[in-house]
Amino acid sequence: MTQLLEIAVVIPTFNEKANVPTLVAKLDQALAGRRWEAIFVDDDSPDGTAEAARELGRIDARVRVIHRIGRRGLSSACIEGMCATAAPVVAVIDGDLQHDETLLPKMLDLLQRDPDLDVVVGSRFVDGGGTGEWDRDRVAKSAFATKLSRKVLKGDLSDPMSGFFAIRTVHARRLAPELSAIGFKILLDLMTASDVPLRFAELPYTFRVRTEGESKLDHVVAMEYLIALYDRMFGRFVPVRFAMFSGIGVLGVGVHMGVLGLAMLAGAAFLLAQILGALAAMTFNFALNNALTYRDRRLKGFRQLLDGWVSFCVVCSVGLVANVGIAAFVHDFRDGGAAASALIGILVGAVWNYALSSKFVWGRY
Ligand code: GDD
Ligand code: MN
């Protein structure tokens, strides 16, 4: 009798070439006697991680590769991997050997035995688990992030930051459209996406030391974590991109005023100073939105940047006309107060700038 596929192991990778063969050998050992497949989801790593995995795939059909071009992100890689299997259970494990793959058969056993269970999480914070050789700084940061997560998490997970878990694939597929897919926190995202809380069990493991390659967790990832939390709490009311776009817009007003003041101090006429201020603000906003709000679709290279900057200035100029027109209309024909009319104008202008630039500046490549 042919044995049915039991589990897919999804491995997000970026520059992990040296770890690929070791990990597959370890999976082979840990999952001996089970029917499994490994799915590497690689974001076109410059070191050739995807090719290293394909090489193994040619001799062992259990090893598969999703090679993504022009995309980055741990969470989104995991989601794609989880949706790319026919196995009833899917696990996510780091590609750098820091997670304990010998837990996989236990995770699978628990899910196969107990139909009331949806997720099994590898935890560093239950008895028997640990953070290995982390320094105090990293322990403190992780503890802080975990504490913040309590704001969105109803259940009592000991390690919501864990990137190591197994879940029934039906749940992963069902929840995929609800996920923010931002940053590193795929488990937290899954656990908070479900209306009916997912039923989970936890198994202890000790986080290993990385021996090859380096961590990709940096300030941008930390910022993405805050963005993901915002998205879960308020994203329904004000989309996170719009919030960032508007926040940057407010900073842009400061830049405008600063440049205007400096130019006038230098003896420029008001009109010239005002034009310089506006140009500086638009350039500043364009650069910041390109780096932050649209970092996943960032424009690169001289051509794209020039094109984007010009389109952004055009969109914002039309936005300004809309802003002034609406404010004047509310003020003159609807008897709005000056401040209220101005605010309505600004809001309309902001929505206009946001909607059109997401399409015509960052939606073209
Ligand atoms: N496809 C893809 N795209 N993979 C990525 C990306 C990306 O943009 N960024 C990181 N990865 C892969 C890495 O190659 C590695 O296999 C795995 O995701 C974990 O990344 P690390 O950079 O090694 O993260 P870490 O060890 O600092 O963080 C780990 O611990 C956290 C808990 O504190 C991860 O397991 C996190 O998921 C976990 O939350
Ligand atoms: Mn790591």
From TrEMBL:
Pfam family, one: GtrA_DPMS_TM
MF GO annotations: dolichyl-phosphate beta-D-mannosyltransferase activity
Residues annotated as domain Glycosyltransferase 2-like: 9-169
Gene Ontology CC terms: membrane
Membrane topology: Multi-pass membrane protein
UniProt keyword list: Glycosyltransferase, Membrane, Transferase, Transmembrane, Transmembrane helix
One of the protein's GO biological processes: glycolipid biosynthetic process
Membrane spanning residue stretches: 242-263, 269-288, 309-330, 336-356
Domain of life: Bacteria
SUPFAM superfamilies: Nucleotide-diphospho-sugar transferases
The family this protein is said to belong to: Belongs to the glycosyltransferase 2 family.
UniProt name for this protein: Glycosyltransferase family 2 protein
Record lineage: Bacteria, Pseudomonadati, Pseudomonadota, Alphaproteobacteria, Sphingomonadales
